[in-house]
Amino acid sequence: MSARPILAALILASAALAMPTVALADPASDVKADTAKLAADVGVASSAVLADASRLEADTASLASASDKSAARKAVNADVQKLRADRKSLLATWRADRGQLASDLAVARRAAADKLGLAQLLSQVKAQLRTSTAQVRTAVRRAREAERKLQQAVGQTVAPPAGSGLPGAVGR
User: Fold this and answer.
1) End-to-end CA distance of the chain
2) What SS3 state is found at 21?
3) Structural domain boundaries of the chain?
4) In degrees rounded to 5, what are phi and psi of residue 111?
5) How many CB atoms lie within 10 A of CB 135?
6) Cβ atoms of 148 and 167 closer than 8 Å
7) Is 68's pLDDT higher than 90?
8) Could you tell me if 143 and 57 are in contact, meaning their C-beta atoms sit under 8 angstroms apart?
9) C-alpha 153 chain-centroid distance
């Protein structure tokens, strides 16, 4: 018995095992999975930001006529901090998912995947993201306006920190 057939079989088997599994995956399915993940992650994060903005708006409206101004400010500050943290989380999630989608989309384009199907999928995701972004911007704008009214009612004239995303902040 010759050692050549056994050696050839071992070489073929090791080459098959060493082949990356990523190369076997369909690039278009990776893009579809990335778009689904992006839409789901942004939807969850957007709903958290919307809830925070609504809570801030409601708290500022109810606390504007409060007699204890320092307690009112503390409650609103807690809401503002939560809103900021959730917005940062939303942006971080969006950026990470967008980066993964861009790299998988580049691979799919190089692999000559279904261009029309990818274009339709991306346009649907873009429309969902535009809607979500518009809702978040509107809710945050209303919350900022409510906080501005509370600041006027309380008589607070101190400007928020620069880049905080709050009215009167410098560097935005």
Assistant:
1) 78
2) helix
3) 24-153
4) -85, 5
5) 15
6) yes
7) no
8) yes
9) 34
Q: What is the mean pLDDT of residues 81-102?
A: 90
Phi/psi of residue 67, nearest 5 degrees: -80, -30
Q: What is the pLDDT of residue 159?
A: 54
User: What is the gyration radius of the CA atoms in the chain, in angstroms?
Assistant: 26
Distance separating alpha carbons of residues 30 and 32, to the nearest angstrom: 5
Token pair for residue 7? 């050696």
3-state secondary structure of 60: helix
What SS3 class is residue 19? coil
Amino acid identity for residue 167 in this structure: P
Alpha helices in the chain (DSSP H): 3-18, 27-63, 69-110, 115-154
Tell me the residue type at 20: P
At 156 the three-state DSSP class reads coil
**DSSP type of residue 24:** G
